[in-house]
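In full, the data:

***
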Amino acid sequence: MPRHIAHFIFANQGVALMYVGNRPNLSMGNALIHHSNEESAELILKIAEEYGFNELYGLGTSYGGYMICQLAERLGLKKVLNFSGAQKEPQVEQKTSMMSMRSSYPMKNILSVLSKDDPVDLEILKAYDSEGFETPRVFLSSKSHGSFSSAFLEGKVNNFFAWMLN
């Protein structure tokens, strides 16, 4: 989904947004370019504090869903919307766990949204099941990996935001 449309959707929900964009050379150990996950979390928290945000929520699509789950505990996120996530670390053959840091972040606070028909999402679902990544799940009808656009087109984004913000 184009960023300006996503920003419009968030603005209509009254949600302030910090966007962490795509980066070259994706790595599980670096959420932000040249910053470890720990350094990335510290920087994000510093910016949030500077702007007066004291309740943080996460939302990510595809690899971003994977990353926000990795940072959820470090950031103290209230809840996370995980649109599709990723079945393995990009550019690495070996599968890695969604919560490889063995976080104590409560799985009930992550809503995983997947397509019930997209081949990539079906593989992600298999990886989730085999890894014990047992979060609440919602399945979309559209055949689209990433699912945020599909959720919007299916009229479900407001329901997902309501779950996240309650």
User: Anything to note?
Assistant: Residues 59 and 149 are 13 Å apart (CA to CA). Strands lie at 58-61, 80-83, 110-115, 137-140. The longest strand covers residues 110-115. The mean pLDDT is 82.
